[in-house]
Specification:
Strand order of the largest sheet: 1-2
Radius of gyration: 12 Å
Structural class: mainly alpha
Strand content: under 5%
Largest sheet: 2 strands, parallel
Shape: globular
Mean pLDDT: 93
Number of helices: 7
Length: 102
């Protein structure tokens, strides 16, 4: 998989912000999940772009296996999801951690 660059992240965030409908954004995220790897920080930036908690959880689940630096999850992702409800924050973290347990 190709590492997601900061430039590509910016374009992705713009595209997600301009796209109407959860289904369309989900298709974009599925494409990203198929083609790119990313850091926890990149995932956090993507999650911040999405407005609905359910959509952020779905995005985290779709993109969880693409995260390459899970050892940095507390420092790099938790600040981005700090405002989530406790249940949603836990579900996001679990989806990422569980996707990397072999």
């Amino acid at each position: 998989m190709t590492p997601l660059s900061d430039g590509s992240l910016g374009r992705l965030r713009e595209l997600l912000a301009q796209t109407d409908g959860m289904e369309e954004r989900e298709e974009i995220l599925k494409s990203v999940a198929s083609n790119y790897s990313m850091t926890c920080r990149h995932l956090g930036c993507i999650l911040m772009t999405l407005k609905l908690p359910a959509e952020r959880l779905k995005a985290a689940t779709l993109l969880a296996r693409t995260v390459v630096d899970c050892e940095n999850i507390n420092a790099d992702l938790v600040p981005y999801i700090a405002m989530e409800s406790h249940a949603n924050r836990d579900a996001i973290l679990k989806s990422i951690i569980n996707s990397h347990i072999k």
